[in-house]
Amino acid sequence: MVIKETYKSVYQWLASTFGHHWIGHGILVILVFILTTYIASNLVKTGELSETRATHLLYLIVAGTIISFVIIGGFFLIEFSI
Fold it and tell me: What integer best gives the mean pLDDT of the chain?
C-alpha cells in the first residue's frame, strides 16, 4: 500500500493492468497471503507442530503484524501530518 501511494507509476500500472488500482491491490495482497501461508506451512512439514516451531511461528506472525502496523501507520502520520 505504501509503495502504491508513494510511486505514481505503480499506482498507474495497477489501474491500467487491473482496471482499478484497488482491484490490483487486492490481487497482490491475496498473492502475498498465499505465498506467506505456503512458507509458513513448510515450517510445519512434519505433520505435527512442535512447541518450538509453534513458538517461532507465533513470533513471526506477531513481528510481521507489528512491522506492518509501524510501516503503514508511519506512512499515514508522515503523509497526512499538518
Answer: 86
